[in-house]
Amino acid sequence: MISVQISGTMPTMPSNPIPDAMQSVAEVMEESILANLAAGGRPDQWLPRKKDGGVALRGFMRDVSSRYDGSSAEAGIFNAEVKHYANQFGAEIPPVEGKLMVFEIDGVTVFTRRRRGFTLPARPYVMFQQQDVEDILRLVTNAVLRGVRNEPITAV
Predict the structure, then answer these.
(1) Is the pTM of this model over 0.90?
(2) Is 124:45 a contact under the CB 8 Å cutoff?
(3) Beta bridge partners of 66
(4) Looking at residue 146, what is its pLDDT?
(5) Sign of the CA dihedral with 26 first, then 29, 30, and 31 last
(6) CB neighbours of 84 closer than 8 A, spacing ≥ 6?
């Protein structure tokens, strides 16, 4: 799992707007990760894909989701595979020689006994921009203030 979670103990309040706020926080977090992937890196762009110059990792967008409960919000890739970790943190892929390897590249089946090693650069996509952090803080602060003041719970 590659994710970020926000959680904590909240003060006792006559009304509890925190679950609604956590839903909104989870949405902000998920949208931020999706925007990172769609832009090919934020604030700094990642290098484009070598094979076609396209935006790297755009295919990961379908893997991003969020969840929340009464006191926490979380967003990321919950069923992460090696490819997700390798791209988030970077990886050294060692050379391989010996056993026959079969794989497909652009619809063409390739057979080889040798693969050169390479470095996969980190492309951090499970992260938030400063504006996202400010939005999250505003959502939680407003929810706590509404709860302490016993104001009606409305959409955040």
Answers:
(1) no
(2) no
(3) 75
(4) 78
(5) positive
(6) 2, 60, 63, 77
Alpha carbon distances (Å) from 37 to 10, 61, 128, 135, 147: 32, 7, 12, 20, 35
CA–CA separation, 77 vs 90, rounded Å?
Answer: 16
Q: Which residues contact 47 (CB under 8 A, 6 or more apart)?
A: 56, 121
Q: How far apart are the first and last CA of the chain?
A: 28
How far is residue 119's CA from residue 112's CA, in Å, rounded to a whole number? 20
DSSP for 50-87, please give it. Answer: TTT---TTGGGGGG-EEEE-SSEEEEEETT--HHHHHH
Q: Which structural domain, as residue segments, surrounds residue 33? A: 2-90+121-148
User: 1-5, 142-146, 149-153: lowest mean pLDDT where?
Assistant: 149-153
Q: How many domains does the chain divide into?
A: 1
Work out whether strand 108-115 and strand 65-68 pair parallel, antiparallel, or are unpaired. Answer: unpaired
Cα 78 to Cα 126: distance, rounded to the nearest angstrom: 12
